[in-house]
Amino acid sequence: MYLDYVIRRFGIMVLIFALAVTINFALPRLSPGDPVEQQLSQLMASSGGQVGDVRAMVESYRQRFGLDQPVWRQYLDYWAMVLSLDLGFSLANYPERVGESIAGAMPWTLGLLGMATLISFAAGTLLGGLLAWPRAPRWLGWFAAPFMVLSAIPYFLIGVILLFLGAIVYRIFPAGGGFPFELTPRADWATVSGILWHATLPALSIVLAQIGAWAIGMRGMLVSVLGEDHIVLAEAKGLTQRRIFLWYAVRNALLPQLTKLALTLGHLVSGAILVEVIFSYPGMGYRLYQAIQSKDYFVVQGIVLILSLSIAVTMFILDLLYPLIDPRITNRRN
Amino acid sequence: MSAPVIEVAGLSVRYRTAKGPALAVDDVGFALSPGERLGLVGESGSGKSTTVLALMRMIKPPGAIDGRILLEGRDVLALSEEELRRARFARMSLVPQGAMSSLNPVLRIRSQFADLFAAHGERADGHRIAALLARVGLPAGVADRHPHELSGGMKQRVCIALAIALTPAVILADEPTSALDVVVQKQVLATLGRVQQEIGAAIVLIGHDMALMAHFVDRIGVMYAGRLVETGPVKAVFRAPRHPYTRMLIGALPSLTERRAFQGIPGVPPSLTDRPPGCPFQTRCPAAEARCRTEAPPARTVGPGHEAACHFAEAA
What we know:
The complex is a heterodimer of chains A (about 325) and B (about 325). By secondary structure, chain A is mainly α. Chain A has helices spanning about 1-30, 35-45, 55-65, 70-85, 100-130, 140-150, 155-170, 190-225, 230-235, 240-265, 270, 275-280, 285-295, 295-325, 330. Chain A has a domain at about 105-295: Orthogonal Bundle (MetI-like fold). Chain A contains 15 helices and no strands. Chain B has a domain at about 220-255 and about 265-315. Helices cover about 30% and strands about 20% of the residues of chain B. At the A-B interface, helix 9 and helix 10 of A face helix 2 and helix 3 of B.
């Protein structure tokens, strides 16, 4: 029964992936503007029109990137490339490969946004749970109020404020980058602390903006769970408050939060492009932003593809985990 | 008669509301000897469930409990939080109203037994759980199921097994069969009665089905607008009901032998925040007189163990 379920979910994931590849292939070709001509016109502008036979160059570029082939051929080639994990060359930074470009940016994004999201999820969920718990201390409400206010402010505004205060007025933290320029990354404490030091402000802007939202969601869920009959019986059974809170209230209120977490993790890269841009953080969001600005098709495609793939995979993983968290889920269809 | 296991006197539950205090339970008192079965009947909102929750001391603010509840001689309302927690289910257990949703949907039945034992410092082994399930007529395999894999009757049986797990002195059963169909109702009630006798616990059974109740309990209490208007041995109450409300309730029961039009009780119960002066039933009582509108009737003894709160109880 569980196997059926897994196969069904896996099928959905494959379908989403195929759709993503197709849309990803089609979208840039439908958008106005020609990347080759744009690159060449930039080149001409910078060299004062002295570039030789433009027509021949356009042709050779088109050939180089396979843009002279019929569309169906390009589509099949694209699939072949995707399946062999070859995402082509960057147009803007030729001969850099898209794969390398993404591989270089990925760890930064996963580290910064992944950690920031997990921290705000854990802290916000716990905070929200306690806010709804009648026996939680009173001061918690006061403690939580600022986070609720902050959750109404867009994270990039918080980012700008933090940047201004932390890096310009007080100069405690660096204003940008993911790592001190003067260091070469090694597996030592200086490297780790350098990374953390650079990640503090961008991470803080995300955490501050998100904690309130997590807390509000959890608080609402927990309030409705507390009204359920099984809480009454748990209390009548003489269970300890701790057991009731964690295993009867939080455990049952967690499901929607986890769905939201998986979606947030899936959208990690696109969700915080502006934070990476504000802090010139060398992650996928910043790279995507640069690529869109320079009409770097293949990089945009590559990043968007990775993005769709990561969403599909996180949803699949979530689907696998769901039955463990809520036993009612596998059976629902049968 | 041996010493009562539970003695309730002057029990009141008041909720603070925007419209002023709502008196959900008003001056309720009764006592139960070991193994005795008391049934509480009354229409919705008459305070039956609130009474049971008050006995467990589970009324949440803005509600407040007044009066005295002596459980095996100990004052429940004076217990510390920890003492209260330890007394729950160990000395007085609850079979909840919504059996369908009273088990935690994400935990296996086994864990829901295990945490009960753990909370009371007892070891929970598989044999003990299997034996409890067997006592309520369930196979041992149920322990490994989640609640959604069980039928309503099975869930209710699990709740009964939980309620007897620590051999309490009192079982409070809050409409344990209201969510079940008629056939299963009888079976579950029979199971409840059997295990209750086995462990020798007293039981307070709440219901609104007087006929079902009559077969099960020794004594019956009729509640109206938060008050216990009549209590007595079930035979005496059915044979000679002394309170007009009880008479009308019994009169409303369909009969197999007599063919007659179905009878109801006209009117609605009074608002809990705005109670009429005098007798709470005076607005619907066919026999109400001037005195009923000013003077609240005290409980009068009308027979051995039979009391009714009506000015004309003796005359009826």
